[in-house]
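User: structure tokens for this one?
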Amino acid sequence: MKSSAFSVVIPAYNAAETLGACLESLGRAMPAPAEILVYDDGSTDDTRAIARAHGARVLRNDGPNQGPARGRNIGAEAASTRTVVFVDADVAVQPGAPGLLAARVAREAGVVAAFGAYGARSPVKNYAGRYANLRHHHTHAEAPGEAMTFLSGLGAVDRAAFLRAGGFDLSYDRPCIEDVELGLRLREQGGRILLVPQAQGDHLKNWTIRQLWHTDVFVRALPWSKLMIEGRLGDTLNTGGREKEKSVLAHGVWASALVALFVPLVWLATLGFAAAYLWSNRRLLRLLGRNSRRLAVAGAALHWTYHLYASVAFALVLVGTGLRTQMRQRPRIRRQARRLRRAAQSLKTPSSARQGLLEGPTR
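Assistant:
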């Protein structure tokens, strides 16, 4: 049986605001990590000093910021244990979370990665931030067990399997879905990935609405849609069949309301779509309501817009992919059409003329 000793790797860029809380939480971890490696990705604040003050080993990039994917790869290569736990610099882990994930990777047959979830109570203050973090918790809490993706915010990997897979894809030079894509490659190589919702950490990022919408659309929905259309990502977590049904209901609300402006009786359909949408999301809304009633109301509105823009993003990627495929096929289609025209012309030529063309002029 492999040892369940583990190293923690934290990529950090100008993370002074949250890194201290992250490292303090790791200091309370039971069992304690064998080492903590912080990759300082060209920070201009006190990130490096904070890491050293908490006893972490600092790996440095003194040039321009190159993204967390590279930082995690370098940290994993430098780690001294067989299991690596990735933690984001804005996540404060619960004491047992890193050890639980490391143990599942080290001790269960075929498991090459395991990841946890954000906590059920969000420590941030504004509505967008609390909604975003609790939505993440709800999504992962609803789907324990085998997974096809990975979460680098709080996730453990078998170091050997990670290196065989080539680590995180460095084409993601900014935070994106590099962890999702890594999970797909680990699965394609025959490894198992576990979602362990009991392993939790508090996400300390205080999202604004602008940050939330930008991240949801450009960092998640668009690249996720690309993976889905390529056939690499099936129904999982927030891309499953239930989520698609919720998107249909969300669009039904605004579409029926638009029609109701001209046909008042259709307002009944709008109320029906709205009620069905709220009912389909009752578990999330109940979770938000346990934090505050105002958060439940704000969260319902934010979640409705989330289903709208996520589904529109998928449709745009689908149409764009179809157009690009059509453009690539046009030269081939034109060549085939020319060959068919020549063949048709040949068939229209009288047999005596065709024979003459084949034999050439006689002398």
